[in-house]
């Protein structure tokens, strides 16, 4: 096997690359906070609007959005690999990384899932912080905060392109309905 420059046989880089997903999960669990570990094991993780298609006007205004959505979706799906309870909210065609996720579009679907699995906490990630994640009318954080303890995984979200005030404004409004982790 030809190794890249600077990588020696038996190096930790090669050892890490050869690890199984369960071994990587064990290492990650040993270094994360107890709360995050609890959420990874017990909460329902909701990927909001990982959509591959947008209307023509959005494509014109944000020509980079499709590529950015695919890139962020890859990151989110990699992080969520070991998560037990994960769903998407995708009213249109989702990015392929989420093709095996259950798609929940209504409060009743979400309630059935959480009741079936005895879940009381929701963790939101995806698209778009300060926009859809908060205000999606059926299962967004604002609507669900009346029934569940809600969190936003900050480093697994993108900002709403039209949000006035940017990240600070999105964080401020999110804290009205949940905790940022």
Please tell me about this protein's structure.
- The protein is an alpha/beta fold.
- 43% of the residues lie in helices and 18% in strands.
- It has helices at residues 12-18, 21-31, 34-42, 56-61, 65-80, 107-117, 132-135, 141-144, 166-174; strands spanning 44-48, 86-89, 102-103, 121-129, 149-159, 179-180.
- The chain has a six-stranded parallel sheet.
- Helix 9 links the parallel strand 5 (149-159) and strand 6.
- The protein is globular.
- Mean pLDDT is 84; it is low at 11-17.
Would you kindly provide a brief summary of this structure?
This protein is 43% helix and 18% strand.
**What portion of residues belong to β-strands?**
15-25%
The biggest beta sheet is recorded as: 6 strands, parallel
What oligomeric assembly is this protein in? single chain
Please give the radius of gyration in angstroms: 18 Å
Structure keywords:
181 residues; single chain; alpha/beta; six-stranded parallel β-sheet
How is this fold's topology laid out?
Elements: H1 12-18, H2 21-31, H3 34-42, E1 44-48, H4 56-61, H5 65-80, E2 86-89, E3 102-103, H6 107-117, E4 121-129, H7 132-135, H8 141-144, E5 149-159, H9 166-174, E6 179-180
Parallel strand pairs: 1-2, 1-4, 2-3, 4-5, 5-6
